[in-house]
Amino acid sequence: MEDMKTDAAAMGRLAKALAFICGPDHATTVALAAAAESGADKDIKKARTLFLRLKPGDRKAALTMISD
Question: pLDDT tens for residues 1-34?
């Protein structure tokens, strides 16, 4: 998740994966999309915090979906 801080494109892909897993209106999905768009430290911190609060299975599934 540390790499996500500097890679807005990866955060955008992660938001799309979470939209599939958790739904497009889920707070984490919305926060990741906002962080990817703005790149602001405040938005990135919020998105990271919410991502880490997800169930481990949801986190793993999302990261697996975006891995190349």
Answer: 454 445 788 899 999 999 999 999 999 999 999 9
Both tokens assigned to 35 = 């962080």
Largest pairwise CA distance in the chain: 28
pTM, whole model, 2 decimals?
A: 0.86
Structural domain that includes position 25: 2-66
State the total domains in the chain: 1
29: three-class secondary structure by DSSP: helix
Query: Tell me, what amino acid is at 67?
Result: S
Tell me how far apart the alpha carbons of residues 24 and 42 are, in angstroms, rounded to a whole number. 21
Q: What whole-number percentage of the chain has pLDDT above 90? A: 78
Residues 6+ apart with CB under 8 A from 38: none
